[in-house]
Amino acid sequence: MGNQETYASVDTETAEPARPASKAKSACADAGENCFESTIEGRETKIEELMVSSPASHRILTRRALFKGAVCGFAGLAVYGVEIDRHWLETTHYDVHLPGLSAEFDGFRVVQLSDIHIDEFTEPFFVRDAVDRINRLAPDAVFLTGDFVTYQLVTQKFALGSAWQCADILSGLKCPQRYAIFGNHDVMVSENVVGAALKDSGITVLRNWYLPLERGNGRVWLAGLDDPVEGHPDPEAAIPARIRNRPDEPVIVLCHAPDYANTLLMHPAGQAVSLMLSGHTHGGQVRIPFMPAMHLPPLGCIYVEGWFKLGSMRLFVNRGLGTVGVPVRFNCAPELTVFTLRAAPPRGPGEV
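and the corresponding structure tokens:
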């Protein structure tokens, strides 16, 4: 709009000197043709200036203004996606009703944090902000569902150092029950190094393994699968027969790639799972309104974000904290998810 106003001002200024032309033309009529030609030559510059105000020129100026406006608009969207939407951390809350959950676990609160991708694009200050928010929420447990680092644009050596930096920041989590699984980038960098960094910071890593969460006489089984994209998930090891279908002892599974749910459900172990928590997709990261997600990773194309009911199992896909490919989010804010476990059946909106 500013450019269009400038051009309007120029049109007004160039039009004003044209008014004496009628006097010049009368003088030419008295002096004859030569005078008229001379007058035309003398006014050559003015005539060229007047040409700026022609309809064709207006169309050119309008197209230029539109083009510049479009460039400014795209630049504004880029700044929004890089600096604003990418750091607009959203906290979502859900009541989750698990069949067989004991009364002792009713109200048990879990926070899920996923896909940190520190250092390549995710700044350490943003991870610290997420940790501070989790501490203010004061959950009973924190589930970290993979991709602490990125192995894409940076070297493996750089990413290995980032793993220790990420784990050091996560050591600031005040909740004593902290559990993690690996994502595909963690496997590509080094599960051994990422796992060692997490364990050194007091975080329990579940790689095809399980453990009980206990409260009074109540118990919930927490299982973690290795990453299905780059690793080797083993449902038989993570969810052995001894913990399946036990009365009043539901099973929660952490698995980085959500589409693996379809494979898991074909295994007897999958039939015993009440809740599966995943990440990996970043929710699509850049979501143009009225269009599907433009770029999704392997095993992250079916279940992109939010809730899905798959038979007796519920699946939730977290949008994650960081980004890959480009440091941009649009219409897809980073996410912290708070789950409050409930023993009673669902009663209304907002309850799962």
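(Above: one complete record from the training split.) The longest helix spans residues 55-84.
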